[in-house]
Structure formats: structure tokens, C-alpha cells
Amino acid sequence: MAVALITGASQGIGECIAKRLAKDGYDIAINYYPTENDRAKAVKVAEACSELGARAEIFPADVSDFTQCADMVKAVKDAFGSLDALVNNAGITKDTLLTLMSEEQYDQVIAVNQKSVFNMMKPAIKLMMKQKKGAIVNMASVAGLYGNPGQINYAASKAAIIGMTKTAAKEVGARNIRVNAVAPGLIKTPMTDVLTDEQKGKIFERIALKRFGEVEEIASVVSFLLSDSASYITGQTIEISGGLEM
Ligand code: NAD
Predict the structure, then answer these.
(1) Hey, which of 9, 144, 178, 196 would disulfide with 30, CB 3.0 to 4.6 Å?
(2) With a 6 A CB cut-off, is 242 part of the ligand 1 pocket?
């Protein structure tokens, strides 16, 4: 059975991806941020994946921590025997205008959103190289493609992920490992619940499809990119934004 590890999978887009990949037939490794609250949510996601027929286990790790990521990849390999698909989904926002942003707000977002992708891809790719196959999807954002006021830290982290995706794809393509990214627009999750109605209204006007995205609409593209149906696609960033920018 192919094994998929999804970071930040205790809620939101990550939870939905875990369930979708369980339906696709993967065994599921659910990473969660090590708090009691996130653990309880991750247990529920694992139960849901089990009900869909997958073997599912939970793995605590702060993905901004290099050692915790390496240990987690090893733990997944020990538990399941392989790692075939990795989804670097975990992410945070600390939004405010550039002139008001603290160094800490900047550094935290870079560490969790961007450095985590290095932390995870390094051990995962080493393992996939031994297995002679693998597929990775990194979670970027339209903010990384076009910029977004109040998100200098977030846009920097997500633009970096696009460059990292292309670089890793070029480095490991010959090893039968594909690396792609998706760039969601505004998707209904706990992360976007915090936006004010005014902020949501402004974004809404710019979306061609005139609605926000659903988590399932991200999960289906991730599922495709990880599958053999996307066997000749690597280094790409697929925008999933309802036509927010064109
Ligand atoms: P969310 O806040 O609902 O979920 C994020 C998950 O990441 C949570 O489970 C959280 O616990 C986890 N996480 C945070 N820091 C972590 C850490 N240090 N270690 C491990 N896990 C950690 O957000 P979401 O909307 O589901 O976002 C998921 C991804 O999609 C993020 O990378 C986000 O930037 C990206 N994204 C979301 C949207 C959107 O509109 N919701 C748009 C574009 C991109």
C-alpha cells in the first residue's frame, strides 16, 4: 500500500487532503502540531481515514524544527515501511502591514511555512531516492504569485516555496521523484474564518467564479498531482483560485 504523509493535517485543507488520499487508497500519516488540542483533532482525522479503509497513524512534530521533521520521516518509515507521497501543507499567517510587522512575526511565518518545506523535503527525498520513486506537493498560495497587502511574510514564504518546488523537481526528476505545488486562492477554512467581512468582500469581487473555494477543490488537485495521471508533470505550480488573477 502506498503511504502518504500530510503535514498540518489536524484541520482545514490538510484534514481534507488526508481523507481524500485515504479514499484514493493510500495509508495515511497525519502530522499535527504537538499540542493536546491538535492531537485530539488529529485522532478524529485518523478515525475518519480508517473508516474510509486506510491504515492511519498520527505523528506529532513542529515542522519548523529541522530535527523533529527528520525524526518524523524516520518514524513514518518505521511504522509503514515506506513513504510514497508527501504533502507539505502546514502553514500559518501573522498578517499586518510591512511597516507594522515585528521581526518575530516575519521570522515565525518564514520558519513554519518555508523552512519547513526544506526540513521535510530533505529527509523525505533521501528516502524516496532509495525507493526510486515518490511524489511531493507543496502548499503555496496566490499571495506568493501576486503579493497581498498585509502579508509580506506570508507572500515571501509562499513565493519561496514555488522556487523550492522548481529546484527540487530539477534535482530529483532523474530519480523518478516529482515535486509540484498548488497555489490556492481564498478557501473556506479556520485560517480564512478570521478575515473580516470587509476583507472577504474585497477579495470576492475579484474572483471570476464569484465564490470562495472548498477544501475538497484543493484536495482533488493534490490527489491528481500525486497520482500516476500526473506522471509527466513536475516543477509546476497549479493555481486553484476560481480565477482570482489571470
Ligand atoms: P489551517 O490554519 O486551518 O490549518 C493549518 C494547519 O497547520 C493546522 O492543522 C495547524 O495546526 C498546522 N500547523 C501550523 N503550524 C504548524 C507547525 N509548526 N507544525 C506542524 N503543523 C503546524 O489553515 P488551512 O487554511 O487549512 O491552510 C493549509 C495550508 O494551505 C497552509 O499552508 C496555508 O498557507 C495554505 N493556504 C490556505 C489558503 C486558504 O484560503 N485557506 C489559501 C492559500 C494557501
Answers:
(1) 9
(2) no
